Amino acid sequence: MKKVMIIGAVGAGKSTLIKALFGESQPASKTQSLIYRDWVIDTPGEYSENPLYYRSLMATSHEAAAVLLVQDATRDRNYFPPGFEQGFAVPALGAVTKIDHPQADIDHAIELLRQALPEGEIFLTSAASNEGIAKLKDKLMQIVHS
Question: How many distinct structural domains can be found in the chain?
Answer without folding.
Answer: 1
